[in-house]
Amino acid sequence: MTDLKGKVAIITGAASGIGLAGVETFVAAGAQVIAGDVQDEKGKALETRFGPDKVRFTHCDVTDMGQLEALMQSAVDAFGGLDILWNNAGHGGTPTSVEELDLDGFDATMNLLLKQVFAGTKFAIPHMKARGKGSVINTSSISAVCAGYAPITYSVAKKGVAHFSKLAAAELAKYQIRVNAILPGFIATSIFGASLGLSREVADQMAEMVSQAGGSMQPIGRVGRGSDIAEMAAFLASDAASFITGGEFLVDGGMTVGPPHSWNEQVASPLLDALGISPEQAEQMRLAMAAQS
């Protein structure tokens, strides 16, 4: 298991989904965690569950710069310092296309998904410098590298998160502060329902439906779990990853290895489909050619 003993971490968006899995994983690895979120009831339940010696909940709207800066200070006040920052908070953003772009929604999406990553990192730097080193982890997305997985504004913001991580890694290496990005694939969380405007309760229920029905979308044969991302984050936060910075880590069940026909023999390739040739017909043609050779 990853060892985070003696380390103090901040995780934003910590009350549900990937962030909640992060709190569970980091605490199990020995870290003390400041859990930042706007979901007060769920956040306070975390503090009760683990105890205030391991987890402290702090209400934090990451688009409010004052609250975000105070969140960084809360790690020092509660546990004596800050070693790890996981900028994880987010939602699906505005769903509109370029042609129908909602400019206010664009600004809100960028503030939540990109600006707060810049700002959270900025506010963490002096605390990490005081510790002599640190690890910043940023949640990006496979939509940063492929079209078709999320709305365009969300995808562009997540691309920015990934590239920011590389640039910040270069700038902060002199302080022994490492910066890496995780690009999750199809993870069963409430973000899908929340992006549709559903209530938190209904979105949580939808996450369970996604978990049961989405396995066929990736070669690995199952939907991702929050713990899959949390385990990668814990590794990147640990001293075992001390030689790793500026990386973009796909954790996607193989979703981006290629189109479905590259890993699912039941799916026709686009070329065969365009020619009107079914997978069965293609196999018959292959066998006929093999018999002639």
Automatic annotation (TrEMBL):
Domain of life, source organism: Bacteria
Signal peptide: none
Gene3D superfamilies, per database record: NAD(P)-binding Rossmann-like Domain (3.40.50.720)
UniProt xrefs under Pfam families: adh_short_C2
GO biological process, alphabetically ordered: steroid metabolic process
Single Gene Ontology MF annotation: oxidoreductase activity
Keywords carried by this UniProt record: Lipid metabolism, NAD, Oxidoreductase, Steroid metabolism
Family: Belongs to the short-chain dehydrogenases/reductases (SDR) family.
Protein name: 2,5-dichloro-2,5-cyclohexadiene-1,4-diol dehydrogenase
